[in-house]
Design goal:
- There is one protein chain.
- The model has no long low-confidence stretch (mean pLDDT about 80).
- With about 200 residues, the chain is mainly beta.
- A hairpin with a 2-residue loop joins β16 and β17 (about 195-200).
- The strands form six sheets. Strands 8-7-11-12-13-14 form a six-stranded antiparallel β-sheet, with no helix packed on it.
- The chain is rod-shaped, with a radius of gyration of 34 Å.
- The protein is built from no helices and 17 strands.
Length: about 200
């Protein structure tokens, strides 16, 4: 009947409805006196979802990078490790995408995983920098838009970049007597077929 109220109930949460057309009534969904039914066509719109991928870069001075040579950790706002990913030979570190279905404002941290062993057989030094990363996801209608910002020492930077150095080792040659005492004044050189070619040291 004219003036009757219509009630709509969502069958699931997190959705919106858009009315595409109304048949049997005018704008405002008013049924004409002669009408006895009304047809409403609507479309259920589900909110979008997005994946946000956090990244880092590894630079190694003094040697070439190889796949899986260094590992990096992604931590949540409470500093709990939630992912560990290696770098590839190009120095690229890509974490597993983070999925969002609604607005959010999250904080993460990225750091290089330092070996627990006291010695480093590969003679590598490690970058102890810890980057802060904010991920601000804004929802406008059903559209989600992320903004990722990297911080180093509370200063905004373009990316999380970790730089490592390969330490140059030194070799020593010592000549001892039968008692194990070092002999002084000893000269070392290169010989070929018993012929002296080049003195090494001292």
């Amino acid at each position: 009947p004219q003036g009757a109220k219509l009630r709509f109930t969502e069958d699931s949460t997190g959705v919106e409805y858009r009315f595409d057309s109304v048949t049997g009534g005018t704008s405002g969904i008013t049924v004409e006196p002669s009408g006895n039914e009304i047809t409403i066509t609507h479309q259920k719109l589900r909110p979008g979802n997005i994946d946000v991928t956090l990244e880092a870069t590894k630079i190694l001075n003094g040697a070439e990078l190889s796949n899986n040579a260094f590992d990096f950790e992604l931590l949540d706002s409470s500093k709990h490790v939630i992912q560990t990913r290696p770098c590839n030979y190009d120095g690229e570190v890509t974490f597993i995408p983070l999925g969002y279905t609604d607005a959010a404002n999250d904080t993460f941290y990225i750091r290089e995983k330092i070996p627990t062993a006291t010695s480093d057989p590969d003679m590598k030094s490690y970058d102890t920098t810890e980057y802060k990363v904010t991920d601000n996801v804004v929802k406008e209608g059903l559209v989600l838009t992320p903004t990722v910002t990297y911080y180093k020492d509370n200063t905004v930077v373009d990316a999380a970049v970790f730089t490592n150095e390969v330490k140059l080792g030194e070799d020593y040659i010592v000549k001892e007597d039968n008692a194990g005492n070092n002999l002084s004044g000893v000269k070392f050189g290169i010989y070929k077929n018993g012929e002296f070619k080049e003195q090494l040291f001292p």
